[in-house]
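SAMPLE LOG
Freezer: B-3
Tube label: C17
Construct: single chain, 167 aa
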Amino acid sequence: MIVSMQGNWTVTVKSKSAAYPQRFIITGSTNGKDGSYAGTVGTNVSVMGTQWSIAIQNDDGTGYQLSDTKINFPIKTGTLVQFDIQSNDAGSDKDFNDLVLTCSSAFSESDFLIYGNVTRYTGCLINPCIRKWLVIDSYAAFKEAMKNRLVAESLRELYPERIPVGP
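STRUCTURE (predicted):
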């Protein structure tokens, strides 16, 4: 997964516990820090930009590929906020400790930090793929959902203003 970032952050390799080579890639920086960085503990990069991203990759011998990632909840200590990006490589374990990056930034009382996650499941008519909610996130998905009689009846009853007139 590619992690989207905004603002000025320092990215540091906190730990590596993997047999496969690891690296992280910065794209979209405004201070010339775009590039690939070795997953060596202590590697430190100060990145600036209004919208930039971090991707963690691993090489299982077939070439570099994206690692799965998880983000820890941000912690504010004094004037510093930080969180970890944990990764899981192509190996069989699912431990999310293969490469861990710590992202830190100066933080004042007038700053805001928005944290969360978005998940999209492939192969689903509608997202998220759970029965509790119905989320239709594109017109193509809407047209497909309207082919389901129960969904179409519910949408016509609950959201008549959203149903297009015509063919």
